[in-house]
Amino acid sequence: MAAFLQTNISLNAIKIVPGKYSSLTDHQFRAPYRIRCAAASPGKKRYNIALLPGDGIGPEVISVAKNVLQKAGSLEGLEFDFKEMPVGGAALDLVGVPLPEETFTAAKLSDAILLGAIGGYKWDKNEKHLRPEMALFYLRRDLKVFANLRPATVLPQLVDASTLKKEVAEGVDMMIVRELTGGIYFGEPRGITINENGEEVGVSTEIYAAHEIDRIARVAFETARKRRGKLCSVDKANVLDASILWRKRVTALASEYPDVELSHMYVDNAAMQLIRDPKQFDTIVTNNIFGDILSDEASMITGSIGMLPSASLGESGPGLFEPIHGSAPDIAGQDKANPLATILSAAMLLKYGLGEEKAAKRIEDAVVDALNKGFRTGDIYSPGNVCA
Ligand code: IPM
Ligand code: MG
Asked: Which positions fall inside the Isopropylmalate dehydrogenase-like domain (predicted)?
């Protein structure tokens, strides 16, 4: 797919046709900010989009997704003002911090944020507060995007790319709703200290307040309601106190959603069930760390982590949209990366971030169209396809 990244307009859909990635680095500092109320062309809606390409393959896949957004938007009367800002390792190299204030401000003032990927070997030995990944945590926390939607769908065209047997993988269509701003990722106390025996101890705290559980559970019930009406809450309530409260609060909310069938599952069992019989799942709701792990697992069912988009949403303010894969420094700059997760994240941006469902559908259709034509990147290639 990597060579099929420039878009071409057709009447009904965008066609993804051969072309090369263009690097974003030339215009990475295209400041100053555009003013939000810039006059739109008559009849056009105008949105400010913050683009945070990041590291590794991030700039390549963001460049493609930007083109696709522009084409889909223009077909639906939408105009975008893109503002590209450095984040992660790229920002560390430029200004010495993973999330510069200017980047955060541009993100916060935008209508939606599209992020590529963060991290790389170069910064692996940095002190914790100077690690590129910290940018992600600050963004998630300070934008208050507590609800992370991670769909995992096995497309019929890619069923052979799944690591699971065809009959197990085909038809899988689930949504993982991951809590994103709480739990062990942010809980206090945390850190590495010395105990009374003079030994080093590392501490992280899994902690959830009732309101944090309630708000993510509501997002999950609402999500399930719009899908097949089944919600599975994943926890470790046989061991963890935070999970006991999680289960209690989720159960208490169920009466408000009588049309949703709620079940509970321990996370170890869920990890097993995901590869034993993934079709049993419709919507899954879980905490931050379990959602991190299970969504990587679910991505393999779909054929490649290069396929999975995500949306992170809060109660107000812009949403953050990003592929769930990392920065893949080993293939960066070689035009090999699968851009579909980022392109599909752009579709989620339109749908969940801007409420522009028609434009989102154009992107989803274009992806299916490209796959139907047999175009594949290496990660989803099988014999008979066009390796691009
Ligand atoms: C993810 C990633 C991040 C996370 C890493 C890069 C910090 O794995 O978004 O799933 O753990 O949340
Ligand atoms: Mg992860």
From this structure: 48-386
Q: Determine the atom of ligand 1 nearest the C-alpha atom of 295.
A: 10
Query: Pairing state of beta strands 147-153 and 173-179?
Result: antiparallel
The Cα–Cα gap between 175 and 353 comes to 17
User: How many A from CA of 292 to the centre of ligand 1?
Assistant: 6
Strand partners, 311: 149, 321
Average pLDDT of the segment spanning 37-53? 78
**Which segments of the chain belong to CATH 3.40.718.10?**
44-149+305-387, 163-302
Q: Which atom of ligand 1 is nearest to the CA of 119?
A: 6
Catalytically active residues are 185, 236, 268, 292, 296
pLDDT tens track for 254-276: 999 999 999 999 999 999 999 99
Q: How many residues does the chain have?
A: 388
CATH, domain range 163-302: 3.40.718.10
Q: Which CATH number is 44-149+305-387 given?
A: 3.40.718.10
- DSSP run (H or E) holding 179: strand 173-179
Residues in the ligand 1 pocket, defined by CB under 6 Å: 133, 136, 292, 324
Residue 12 has pLDDT above 90, yes or no: no
Q: How many Cα atoms are found within 13 Å in the side-chain-facing hemisphere of 319?
A: 21
Over the chain, what is the mean pLDDT?
A: 90
**Exposed e or buried b for every residue in 93-108, given b needs 16+ CB within 10 A?**
eeeebbbbebbbebbe
Cα–Cα distance for residue pair 116/339, rounded to 1 Å = 10
Alpha carbons 104 and 90: distance in angstroms, whole number: 14
Q: What is the pLDDT of residue 362?
A: 98
